[in-house]
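Quick sanity check, NAD(+)/NADH kinase:
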Amino acid sequence: MAPRPEIDTTQKWPQPLGVQPAPMYASPMIKPVQRVLLVGKYRDPSVLPGLQRLRDFLLTQGIPTFLETQCAADIGDSLGLPPLSFAQANADTDLVITLGGDGTLLGTARQTAQSGIPILGINQGRLGFLADLSIDQVDKALPPILEGHYQQDLRSILHAELWRGEGCLHAGLAINEVLIHKGGGENMIELRVQIDDRFVYAQRADGLIIATPTGSTAYAMSAGGPILTPTLAALLLIPVCPHTLTARPLAVADTVEVRARLIASRQPAALSLDSHYSVPLEIGDEIVIRRAPCSARLIHPEEENFFQILRSKLHWAESPGDD
């Protein structure tokens, strides 16, 4: 297959700043926080008490505290905090704290991925694999983090492009998954999937999930995929309700390029990134997915580990004395 022409791939999905390479694997970070940017779940007034509690705690600790500009526009002046945009935040000295669920953290991570600003998630949603602290843990968990004692967790990100003919119509980032699905219709779609220009299969299904290790505990897990540890350099391809009993999830190296072409659909199919935006597809459209040259930078308390999170969130049996 001939290489794609160099064209302007202007995004229609909201995009953060320019792309800068970032390593995948975590490294120790011991650096005191000098400024905190708060982000609450947008258009959700239920986060206001939690934001007030975070504001009071941080100001008591003498930490300059700001409210993200869109969040400030939603909430108004009720918190009395100065607004600060993601573009104005400083990766060397600042910390972003999100209050909401994993969706709030994912949206923030897409905005901050290229600038490398660390994110701490406070969970006020349901399961919360990424936003792993509760608001009731703030008084105990935050002081050591503000002093620079925390774990850094770099999560891989996918970059997806939607091609129609010789033009790229959309491009965007996904931290959990790229999803190609049947839209609002009842009939299956058919996709032709290639990896590094090598034919893999033509699959009839309700959809196809291309997930990162982070996304392996999201929709991919619900669709029967395996759980991957966050630092594993892999992607998952998981068909959604495939029309064959032999279809299985496939794990591949995250250095490959995945191409999925829509070859049959009785209704408008769709493409979505992290279940955030949905873009209608036409027969013949091709979605090209690669690992992005940037990472989401998440932080956690020093004593926490991935398997502890799995036990807690999935209610796995624990033995006395487990770490």
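Posting the structure with no commentary besides this: The longest strand covers residues 286-301.
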